[in-house]
Design brief:
The structure holds two protein chains of two kinds. Chain A is built from 18 helices and 15 strands. By secondary structure, chain A is of the alpha+beta class. In chain B, a hairpin with a 5-residue loop joins strand 6 and strand 7. The chains are: A alpha+beta, B alpha+beta. Chain A: It is found in: Cytoplasm; Nucleus.
Amino acid sequence: RAHSSTEQDCCTTLVAASGSSTILPPFSVHRPAGTLRQLFRVSSSTFISTQLATFPTYPAFCAGASMDSRLANTWRLTVNEKKFIETALASDLRIDGRKPLEYRKLTINFGREDGSADVQLGHTHVMGFVSSQLVQPYRERPNEGTMSIFTEFSPMADPSFELGRPGESAIELGRIIDRGLRESRAVDMESLCVLAGKLVWAIRIDLHILDNGGNLVDAANVAALAALLTFRRPECSLGGENGQEVVVHPPEAKDPLPLIVHHLPIAVTFGFFSTEYTMVVDPTHSEEAVMGGRMTVTVNASGDICAIQKAGGVGVPQSEIMRCLRLASDKAESITKNIKDAVEAFNTERMLRKIKRHSTAVAANVSIENDVKGQKDKLAGQRVNESSMSQMERLKLKPDESSISQNDGLGSETRSSDQISSQRAEGNAPLFLGGPSSWDPHTHGVDPDFLKASLAAQGKSNPKAEQSSEDSDDDVAMQEKDASEDVKPPSLATDSSETVEEQKTSIVKKTLKDAVKPKNRRRKKTRS
Amino acid sequence: METDRKDGRTPNQLRPLKCSRNILHRAHGSASWSQGETKVLAAVYGPKAGTKKNEDPEKACIEVIWKPKTGQIGKAEKECEMIMKKTIQSICLLTINPNTTTSVIVQVVNDDGALLPCAINAACAALVDAGIPLKHLAVAICCCVAEEGSVVLDPTKLEEQQMRGFAYLVFPNSALSALPEGSYLVNGEPLEHGIITSVTHGVMSVDEYLKCVDRGRAACAKLSGFLRNSLQKSQFPSDTSSKAA
C-alpha cells in the first residue's frame, strides 16, 4: 500500500514540477513517458528503503496507545524535500548552505555550578550535568570508580520523542558516548577510589537533549566532555580509627578537585546517501531523514580511534571509510581546541570569582564595622542603597551557598558591582547579539567585566561618590508609595537587540544616572 | 522589622528576572525564565490530535512533563506536574480545540529556591509563544514566613529551608483593557485579586497566610507588568522599535 502511494506521489510531483527544473534530476527531462515510469519505479523503491532505514530515528512506533493519533502527529519529510536534498547533494550543495564536509558552528556555554555544560551545534541543543556520589565499587573492580551516562531524549526536543523508556536511538547514543569515554580510558577511574573495596566515587553524567536539529551524538558527546572537564568533586580524607572513616569536605573547607581526563574522544558523524556514494559530515535533521546510512567515528586529537559505529544502512567502500577516518581526525582536532578554549574561559572566570570572593570578604568586614559605628538612619539608607545596587552582582558574582555565610555585609561587593553594571550597560548591546541562542547570558559578558570588577574591588573611592547621590534617591523612594509602577523603557531600548530581557523596575524617579545604568536596581516595594 | 537577608535584599525585593522566548527550534513555543539563580526552560507542543485515556474529549487536554535536572522522576515531580496542569487548565480556553492535547515540557536548569513559581511563569510565557489561546496570563510568586512572623518574598534555596513555612501563590495577571473600568470585575473585585493556585509548606497562622497573599498580590502586579513587556518585545534583532506602549 505504501509502495503504490509513493509511486503516485512521485508521478504527481514530477508533473507539477515539470516547469521548474531545479527539483528534477537533470537527465530525466528529455526521456519519453514510458521510461519515466520505469525511472519512478526505481526511485520510489529507493525512497521506501531510505524511509525504512531511517525508522530507528523515530522510536515509538510500536508501543503505546493510539497508533493513529501518533502517526498523525509525527513529522514526515515530503517527497519534494527528499528529492531536493538528494539533487542538491549531487552538486555538492547542502540545504543549509554548507559544503558536504563542513561542520556546523559549535557553541559551548557553562552554567553557574561546576559540571554543567550547554552545547549548541547549529539548531541542536544539548545540556550535560555531571554529579558524583560515594558508592560501593563493583566486586571485580574494587579499585576503580564508576561512571554512568544517562541520556534523556526529552519530549521537548522532538514531537516524536516519547516519555518513558528510552527508545533505540537514545540507547544507541548513550552506548556510543559510553564506549568512547570508558573503553578508551579517557577518564581516570583509579583516582576515584577512596577506600579500596568499600567506597569509590560514582560519576553520573546526565545528558538532556533539548532540541533535535540533527546529529545528536556529536553534540551530546561534546556536552558530556565539557561537563566532565568542568566538574569538581569534593575532596575527602580518611580519618577515624583504622583510617576507615571517610570525611567528605564541603567546598568551602577544601577546594573540590577536578577529574583527571587523559584525552578527549570526539565523535564525528557521517551520513551516507544511496546516490553515488555521497557523504556528508554532521547531518541536519532533514538530511537524517533522507540519508541511507550513518557512521559515527570517535577519535581523539592524537589520532587514536576510540570507537567506530556503523549500524547497517547503505554499504560503503573501504576507501570511503578510510577517507572518513582521516576527516574525523581533522575535525576532532578543531573541536578539541574549541572545547579546551571554552573550558579555559570558564576556569578563568571561576578563579576570578573565587579571588573576588576572598578579597571582598576582607573588605566586607571593614564596612560592617563602619556601619555599626554610623548612625541608625544612615545605616538604613546605606543598606537600602547597597541592596538597590546593581543586580550584576547577584548574577555574576553570587558566591556559592557556602560563602554567603562569609559575606554578611556585601558593602564592597555591591559597590564594585556598580562599576560592572555601568560597563555592562554600555557593552550590553554588542555582548548580547548572540540572539536566542545565548543560553546563559551571564557567561557572555563576563570576562572583560570580571577583570574590571576585580580591579574595582580594590578601590572603593570611586563608587562612593555615586553612592551618596543614590542615597538621596533611595531615601525619597523609601517614603513614597508608588502604586503606578512602570517598567523602565531605557532598559528595554538597550536590550532590544536580544530576546533576553533583564528588568528591574524600581520606584525611583528617572534621572540621568538611570540612563547610564538602567538595569541595576531590583524592584522594590514599600512595606504595605 | 527588617529581616537581614543573606544577599542583602529587603523582604519585599525580588531577585532579578530574565525572560526569553522562542529559544528552541523544533518546539512550537518555548521560553526560559530565571529568577536570580533559579532557571527553568519550558517548551510547548500543541495542539496535537487526540486526548489521553481518561480525559474529557469535549475539551482540550493539557499534559505537563516535568524534567528534573538529575535523577529519576519521582513523586515530587509528579506533584509539580499535577499542580502545573491544574493551574494551566484554569488559564487556557479549553473549549476552543476539543479533543486535542497540548504538551508543556518543563526542564529544570538550576534550582535555587522558588522553583515551582519560576516554572509556572516559564510555562505561561511558552504558551504565549506557541499561540495557545488563553483567558489571561498567570504570574506566580513564592512568599515565605520567617520565624518571627514577617513575610519575605522570593526566597533562595537556603532561605526556603530556614524559614518556618512558605507558600507558592499564582495570580492572574493584571488586565490592561480597553473596556470600561467596571466591566471586567469579578464580584466587585478586579480580576487579579483572585488566587489561581496556592501551595503551602510548613506552618503558618491564618494572619500570616493572609499577609503572604497581600504581599504576593502586590508583587505579582509588578511581575505581570514585566511579563507583558517581555512578551511584547520583538524577537528579531533588527527591529529596534521593539515594544508598544
